[in-house]
Amino acid sequence: MIVVHPQDPSTAMLRSIYEELPDVKLFDSYLQREEIISAIAAAPKDEPIFLLGHGCPSGLLDMRHGLVIDEGDADLLKDRPNLVCIWCYASTYGYNHGLAGFFSGMFISEPVEALMCGVSVTDYEIECCASDFALRLGKLLRAGKTVREAAQEMMDPKWIVSDLTRYNYSRLEYNECAEGTSVEEAILNAPLLTEEEEADFWGPDELCHEALEDFMWDVQRIDREKGWDEQGRRYCGELSLESIGKDFRKVDFEEYRESCTDERLDDFVNGTGEGFSVEDVRALMYGFTFTDFYSGYSETSFFDNDWWAGRLMETDNEFSPQEELIARAILSTGDGRTPETAFAVIDAYQEYQLISMLMPEHTPLLKRQSLLEGGIDCLEFEDNPYGVERMYFDVHRRFEVGYFNDRNDPEPDLSEE
């Protein structure tokens, strides 16, 4: 069995799919790409190949470097019935290239994804659903099920217990469906459980408890109900689409190489934001990408609205001035209308957060997401009252630096003494 699962804390739960299976050849880095391609090319057509992690319609991503499996590799994956591709929009990749196997579509595993996909759900449910999916699939494979048998079991409508599971599971796909109704149609028409039945489902289920024990013990999620409005979105100052200006200046990251000093960052994090201009925050945020903390710590940063929401939990404030300054710093880098004028962000979470800040009343639903040449992320939306069809974000710096370094530096401690 060949497994390609690039290292990333946010997809660690997927290890449960293959960890206890025999004869696993694991590849976890883009730096092994030549070995990966050689191994797949030499593998018999019936050998299981598992491609897991983050991705887009163009392929499987190593968030530290770029596409580890791209469209040019599709021919190597053809006629492989034991192919498993679990990443966002893997089914689009499979459809575009005529691949057989088991695929996920858009799979909500983060709160910002739920927001963009219009699914009302708690952080607990998201963590539980993703972990349960991986544990359940792994258990089926360890029991001797073939990929096809495991896929059909995973796509059974009996697992639909909420809007979240309906969304994720209706987008699972195998190259063949049962006769009669399609799997997607059966799942979309499946009745939801009552609140009592849902509590019974999540409560005693040993897989769920195992998932929580293994993957949630170190995850401190934010109670988003405090400081969020009825739409589930926090008030974010006076920002709107009209905040996007014509006068912007593209980011030269080298310009800010020495700009993020510990003292200045401490003033920003523990102060009120007073005295900081948009240019000051540009210098801090883009300079932050040259620090060890940026490359060694991936869960969040001081330029993540979720981090600020957590800070505000102990106050009566619903919004921090720093969040608006961060957004305006991003808006100062482009207009988001073309790949050439994309907004410069330091991580993907800033893309979703900026969209919800600019269009807070009816944040458009995400229709498609594509990674273009040069680390440009294109987000296309369903029809929306704002008339916005797509936005472009430059996330190349995240790919350029990656997430991990050899020293495994901890997150900086900038807590007030």
Q: Could you characterize the architecture of this molecule?
A:
By secondary structure, the chain is an alpha/beta fold. It folds into two domains: 2-215, no CATH class; 241-401, no CATH class. Helix content is 35%, strand content 12%. The chain contains 17 helices and 13 strands. The chain has helices spanning 33-42, 74-77, 90-97, 111-116, 123-142, 147-154, 163-169, 183-188, 195-202, 206-215, 262-270, 278-288, 292-296, 305-311, 321-331, 348-358, 396-401, and strands at residues 2-4, 25-27, 49-52, 54-56, 59-62, 66-69, 83-86, 102-103, 173-174, 343-344, 366-372, 376-381, 390-394. A hairpin with an 8-residue loop joins strand 12 (376-381) and strand 13. Helix 5 (123-142) runs antiparallel to helix 6 and helix 5 crosses helix 10 (206-215).
Which structural traits does this protein have?
4-stranded mixed sheet, alpha/beta, 417 residues
State the low-pLDDT regions, or none: 177-187, 200-235, 405-412
Cα(first) to Cα(last) distance is: 51 Å
Structural class based on helices, strands and sheet pairing: alpha/beta
Average pLDDT number: 79
Question: What does the largest sheet look like?
Answer: 6 strands, mixed
Strand content range: 5-15%
Secondary structure: number of strands? 13
Gross geometry: globular
**Strand/helix succession:** EEHEEEEHEHEHHHHEHHHHHHHHEHEEEH
Proportion in helices: 25-40%
The value of Rg in angstroms is: 22 Å
How many structural units, i.e. domains? 2
**Helical segment count:** 17
Arrangement of strands in the largest sheet: 2-1-3-7-8-9
